[in-house]
Amino acid sequence: MPKPLRARLLRYVLYLSAVLLISLLILLWQAPTLTQRHLPGWLAKHYGLNLTLGEISVGLRHPSLAIGPSVLLDEKQQPIIAFEQLQIIPALGESWRQKAIILSDATLTRPTVQLVRLPDNKGTIRFNLTDALTRLLTPTQTPEPAGSEPPLIQITRLAATAGHIRYQDSRKSSSPGWVPPLTLSGLELQLPDFTTAPAHTNPFQLSASLNQHSPLKASGQFDIMTGAGKGRLSLGKLALSPFAPLWAAYLKVDLVKGEASAELDYQLTPGKQGLDWQLTKGKLTLNDWQLKQSQGAEFARFKQLALAGIAMDGGKQSIQIDQIALKAPAITAALDASQQLDLAALLIPLSAAQPAGKQADSGKPWRWSLKETRISQGELKLTESSSGKPQLRELSGLTLTLGPLSSQAGQRSPLTLNTTLNAQSTLAFDGALTLTPFALNGEIRQQGLPLKWAQPYLQDLLRISVRDGLLASRTKLAIATDAKGTLSQLDVTGGLDIERLTVLDRADNQRLLQIEHLQLSGLHYDGISQQVRIGDILLRKPFARIEINEDRVTNVQQLLLPQAAGTKPASGPVPRITIDQIRTEQGNLRFADRSLSPEFVVDIASLTGQSRHISNIPGQRSDLAFNGKVDRYAPVTIRGGTNLLIEQPVLDVAVTFNNLELTTFTPYSSTYAGYAIDKGQLSMKLNYKLRGNRLEGNNDITIKKLQLGEKIKSEQAKDLPLGLAIALLSDANGVIQMNLKVKGNLDQPDFSLGNIFWDVLSNTLSKAITSPFSLLASLAGGTEDLDELLFLPGEPDLTPTQQTKLAKLAQALKERPRLSMNIRGKVNFNEERPILQRQKLERALAKITGAPVDLSLLEQDPVLQAALAEAYEARFNEDLGDLADRLKLDKSSPALRAQAEILLRDQQLITTKSLRNLAMRRAQNTKEYLVDTQGIAPERLFVLDSQVRETDKEAKVVLTLDD
After folding, report:
1. Residue 761 neighbours by CB distance under 10 Å
2. Using CA atoms, how far apart are residues 695 and 690, in angstroms rounded to an integer?
3. Rg (CA), the chain
4. Rounded to a whole number, what is the distance in angstroms from the first to the last CA of the chain?
5. Predicted confidence band at 164 (pLDDT cuts at 50, 70, 90)?
6. How far apart are CA 376 and CA 362, in angstroms?
7. Phi, psi (rounded to 5 degrees) for 617
8. Are 842 and 854 in contact (CB under 8 A)?
9. Residues 522, 525: Cα–Cα separation, whole Å
10. What are the residues whose beta carbons fall under 8 Å from the beta carbon of 130, sequence distance 6 or more?
11. DSSP letter at 151?
């Protein structure tokens, strides 16, 4: 009996299901083989891709798919992409329920990517991977149906392990943007809970090593559909020397060593024109950089350059950096004689570095800000040759702090700088910097700058040698430009101090200029209007030397050295100079005339005063007011007005000398008059006017008690009866008064003020011989017992008895104001020589004992006796015992020591000059007592020359009275 139809249909369905299941199993079993057999050929035929596909394994009990080692090759059979294994574990039930592709795991083991940049094609950047996948990734022409959406993909665990990516640029290393080979090894990528669902972010973690030494880490999350995301990225200790070709087209620099580390947070958000990006918490650190010139020496290095707090916003086009810190930078540079910096040669001009082309539109400018910049432990070594010889200038211990900077116009940034120059001079700046428009304002403080550093720059200009001097300054600087970059302000204000300046004349290596202290205050320099104003210049204890040499040329005229024919003088407007006043305290001006025989030398000491309203503006004059002294007692005053800084100098000066000792002028009287001056005092009122090169002088001369000395042969002297002329010119008081007018032209090669003056004087004396004058009236007086002061042998100092006698004499002189007195020292030639010898011996013995010695106490002083014995043995090469044996004296007897003392005393050399000095000291002490203690006017006292002769028998001062 046949089975029911229902049963048969059920049996047929079961048979069919079994057949379908068997067919599906056969299909799943054969699918890997079919894929391996046909997929590579199909890809090669349709897309030109060469694929070597590994073994494909399919798990049925626990659904999974595993693909063994596979490689994608380019047309040259070079690998592009490879991996050791790709394992996929699907979640079929969830995929069926959610109508999506859901995988529980997708792991790629040891993936390898060989990315090669190919030569550009008409400006288009090409890579081997993009070229190989171009056709595969080219979208089809079939339009997608409306409303279609991409399938949803979810992967519980998506990972790549032990990956390796290599980048290579096949172009020439000189190509723009060429990068050396890069490798990412040990790449680990984890994407848990990956999904393509809209508005869903996928977390990820990535780690790898760049070029095997630099750790690369990244973590964050992203939206696979929009590209939005955020995360953190870090790269550590990347050696940068392999990247030298990146800057080879712009800089001729070799990076010997140097590392870079960086870290940042980033965020990508959808914007109106694609993705907007922001970088925050960025940090870039460059460590241990060393740079050298191409095939040259090192020129720069630093320990660390750190940029912290970096933030960038691509949408807002803004950059912000919290701090830039540079530690221990060191730069070595050279400046040649033409002011060219050697480091400038490191820059390759843009015309050579970049091919000519159309510049891209810069568009909206980026905004930037920098909160703080710091430099510490900086060093700069500059070898400059502007003087013709290399000079090393080294800045050490440089520290710099710069406040906020930004692209915002008008922002003022505090700036401080401190450094030391050549380990001697300190330099500091404290102020503010503005970038747009540029402005720099602040105070500059400098201490201890040796002025001898200026010598190389003056060597070929002036015949001087700066040997000593320290400069200190405190100035304020103000520099500013307008919006077009044109200088709108250049002001320098403040002052400076110079301590112990010493300048020598290289012709004789003698002191030319010396200033104990120079203080300049109230300085104001305006670089725009070219004006210099100085409030006050104080010269404390200045010294200057003016000399006329044997050729009648002054040393001042010879200070300026001749320059080469091709040397051009400095051009440009001459700044207007105004100095309110120049003051002098305790100055000394030395004048010497070496053209005379004997030479004439005079010092104007204690020079004090001021010159006011100095200027180089035509029509203005400075006021002079100076006081000084010649030979300690002769006052000098200078008054008048002058302007020597203009093209046509102007001078109107009155100089007054009172009571100059005429013996000082013996060199002039010997040369032009043929006589020495034995006695006399000179007072002069000189008034000189200079108009252009025309000099006119009016000289009122008063001579007191002129007495000529010996006649001296001179070819320039005129044969005149000077004795008669002096007698005729003198009034009843022995005073000669003359008025001499001189004129001359400074342009004449043989111009000499001395020659003109003595010519006029000679003519005046010649006229005086033929003119009647009153005869000299003599006044005699005084007491006989006051004309001499007897001194103890060997003593120059006054005794109380002598001071009493001088006090009586001073009283008499005060009662006779027209009297003057001559003071001449005398010596006892025969008696004082042994005494001076004894004093000299006592000084020699004092050096042995280390204490003052008095030979009169010889018998009471054992130490002195031992010193005497030592000195005797050193002088005669025998001891006192030998002398005692020869003289048959007891070795401890006073007679023996007395004999040794006499022998040693007679060995002391005493010259006529020593005796003359003793006589002159007696005379000087006498005058000083009368002037300083008794108040006698110095012009009434004359110290006469002490002529020491063997016939002099008395130690005394001879006093004679004159009218």
Report:
1. 20
2. 5
3. 52
4. 190
5. very high
6. 36
7. -90, 125
8. yes
9. 10
10. none
11. P
Output the six-digit token pair for 95.
């995929």
> Strand locations in 423-528, DSSP E?
425-434, 439-450, 464-481, 487-505, 510-526
The contacts of residue 501 (CB under 8 Å, 6+ apart) are 451, 466, 468, 469, 513, 514, 515, 518
CB-based contact 687:697 (threshold 8 Å)? yes
Helix axes 829-849, 912-928, angle to 10 degrees: 90
Q: How confident is the model at residue 466 (pLDDT cuts 50, 70, 90)?
A: very high
Strands 576-593 and 536-548: parallel
Handedness of CA 862, 867, 872, 873 (dihedral sign): positive
Q: Strands 112-121, 153-169: parallel, antiparallel or unpaired by DSSP?
A: parallel
Helix (H, G, I), strand (E, B) or coil at 231: strand
- Helix residue ranges, H only, 730-856: 753-769, 800-815, 829-849
At position 262, the amino acid (one-letter code) is A
Q: Looking up tokens 């068997």, which residue turns up?
A: 22
The answer to whether the beta carbons of residues 674 and 693 sit under 8 Å apart is no
Longest CA pairwise span in the chain (Å): 197
Distance of CA 232 to CAs 223, 267, 645, Å?
16, 9, 71
| Residue 205: per-residue pLDDT | 93
pLDDT of residue 633: 76
Neighbour tally for 726: CB within 10 Å: 20
**What does the alpha-carbon distance between residue 110 and residue 526 come to, in Å, rounded to a whole number?**
73
SS3 state at 25: helix
> Mean pLDDT in the chain?
80
Pairing of strands 367-384, 330-335: parallel
Cis peptide before 111 (omega within 30 of 0): no
Q: Characterise 606 by phi-psi region: left (phi > 0), alpha (psi -120 to 50), beta (else).
A: left
Three-state SS at 667 = helix
Placement of tokens 């009172």 in the chain = 658
Render 468-491 in DSSP notation, one character per residue.
Answer: EEEEEEEEEEEEEE-TTS-EEEEE
Q: Is 890 within 8 Å of 896 (Cβ atoms)?
A: yes
Percent of the chain with pLDDT over 90: 23
User: Is the CB of residue 307 less than 8 Å from the CB of residue 373?
Assistant: no
Q: Could you give the CA distance from residue 548 to residue 557 in angstroms, rounded to a whole number? A: 10
Lowest-pLDDT choice from 132-141, 183-192, 262-271 = 132-141
> Tell me, what's the pLDDT at 747?
55
Please count the CA atoms within 13 angstroms of the CA of 344 that sit on its side-chain side.
Answer: 6
Say which residue the tokens 């030592």 belong to: 870
C-alpha span between 13 and 585 (Å, rounded):
133
Fill in the amino acid letter for 390: P
DSSP string, 566-602: TPPPP-SPPPEEEEEEEEEEEEEEEEEETTSSS-EEE
Measure the CA–CA gap between 793 and 479, rounded to whole angstroms.
76
Question: What string of H, E and C letters represents the secondary structure of 834-891?
Answer: HHHHHHHHHHHHHHHHCCCCCHHHHHHCHHHHHHHHHHHHHHHCCCHHHHHHHHCCCC
**Structural tokens at position 304:** 């660390």
Tens digits of residue pLDDT in 872-901 = 777 778 887 777 778 778 877 888 777 877
Asked if 826 and 952 touch (Cβ cutoff 8 Å), the reply is yes
Go through the chain and tell me how many residues it has: 963
- What distance in Å separates the CA atoms of residue 780 and residue 962, rounded to the nearest whole number? 7
Decide: 468 and 451 in contact? Cβ < 8 Å: yes
* Stated pTM of the model: 0.67
pLDDT for the residue numbered 759: 60
Six token digits for residue 865: 């006796």
Q: Which residues contact 395 (CB under 8 A, 6 or more apart)?
A: 378, 379, 380, 381, 382, 419, 420, 421, 427
